[in-house]
Amino acid sequence: MSATAGQVIKCKAAVAWEAGKPLVIEEVEVAPPQKMEVRIKILYTSLCHTDVYFWEAKAQDSVFPRILGHEAAGIVESVGEGVTEVAAGDHVLPVFTGECGECAHCKSTESNMCSLLRINTERGVMIGDQKSRFSINGKPIYHFLGTSTFSEYTVLHVGCVAKINPLAPLDKVCVLSCGISAGLGATLNVAKPFKGSSVAVFGLGAVGLGAAEGARLAGASRVIGVDLNTARFEEAKKFGVTEFVNPKDYSKPVQEVIAEMTDGGVDRSVECTGNINAMISAFECVHDGWGVAVLVGVPHKDAVFKTHPVNFLNERTLKGTFFGNYKPRSGLPSVVEMYMNKELEVEKFITHTVPFAEINKAFELMLKGEGLRCVIRME
Ligand code: NAD
Ligand code: ZN
Ligand code: ZN
């Protein structure tokens, strides 16, 4: 058992005090884990676009002050009452959606939408007692996505903690705890392209390129990357993207451009932008008769998806997914093994690394559309 078990830990955390204002590194108090909770020492965390949306709070409702962050890797420091799945010293990935193991979703082979622990962007407290485990001078600082990884120590429900191979390098596999697995799984588990098929990927950030990796692994013969940022195209070549379309280069809708390129439409498409127009294009660009489109991007809170119903009658399918349909505890460790077995390359997604003190640089890079994942070193 660790020396700090059962004690309040004082440590550094990057606090978002207000929407859109730089994070401030503060000393926070982290309460011990309660029943079915785990306290983790975060070693590496990376920035996903979802953190940026809830920090900007323009297109999303958020609560402040808050500790953001959900893509990370760490080591269990201590566990609360009733926790048997993990113990101090285990290497783990925190996940924004959980797996209680008991509910109808957890028992279903088709769903990862756990009734108890599914994604909740508004909740800023632990589900056990509706309180925050973080405070400064006795005042609560709120949680984000049940993970709050922009802190040296954080507390999660055990159902949101995936125990992984202790040999996996945490500075690399931290990026598998959200974006890349979400994109990869959206292709492999949801779109399920067949060998030789054509796949369009909208948005060539880390999530989209994770989806492109899925297309490569499934044996797709054409992977068409769609992005408004032409700078993305060079990088995407390393991910098996074979053709590129920038919607800005055409006067007609991108779905028409893609239909012309592919004799009627792609077999599969995966949307990883969060933009409602890209979502509609991603659906309308799949081939009638068999095409399947999968939405992954997190939409604006007021977004409405509009398409003509005949697009469905013509036998196109539209799906959506969180975390690529992986169940975090039972499915994510297998993605880590794909990396360990060299089937999946993770290094190429990590384009920047910064020390914790410079965490705001990671936000600047993402806002400028530079690089893919920026890993933040806690030590
Ligand atoms: P990112 O910012 O690194 O990449 C997004 C890319 O989309 C950028 O290259 C941008 O230029 C491009 N883009 C934006 N609007 C576009 C449009 N209209 N047409 C074409 N390209 C466009 O972000 P990311 O971290 O890769 O995340 C991508 C999306 O996935 C975000 O919406 C994020 O919130 C979401 N996300 C969802 C899940 C999930 O489980 N469903 C998990 C992680 C992230
Ligand atoms: Zn994410
Ligand atoms: Zn469940």
TrEMBL record:
EC number per UniProt: 1.1.1.1
Cellular-component GO terms for this entry: cytosol
Alphabetically ordered keywords of this record: Cytoplasm, Metal-binding, NAD, Oxidoreductase, Zinc
GO BP: formaldehyde catabolic process
InterPro entries according to UniProt: ADH-like_C (IPR013149), ADH-like_N (IPR013154), ADH_Zn_CS (IPR002328), GroES-like_sf (IPR011032), NAD(P)-bd_dom_sf (IPR036291)
Catalytic reactions of this protein: a secondary alcohol + NAD(+) = a ketone + NADH + H(+); a primary alcohol + NAD(+) = an aldehyde + NADH + H(+)
Domain Alcohol dehydrogenase-like N-terminal: 35-164
Enzyme kind, highest EC tier: oxidoreductase
Domain Alcohol dehydrogenase-like C-terminal, first and last residues per copy: 206-329
Subcellular location: Cytoplasm
Cofactor requirements of the protein: Zn(2+)
Pfam family name, one: ADH_zinc_N
Keyword 4Fe-4S assigned: no
Example of a GO MF term: alcohol dehydrogenase (NAD+) activity
Family to which the UniProt record says this protein belongs: Belongs to the zinc-containing alcohol dehydrogenase family.
Name used for this protein in its record: alcohol dehydrogenase
Lineage of origin: Eukaryota, Viridiplantae, Streptophyta, Embryophyta, Tracheophyta
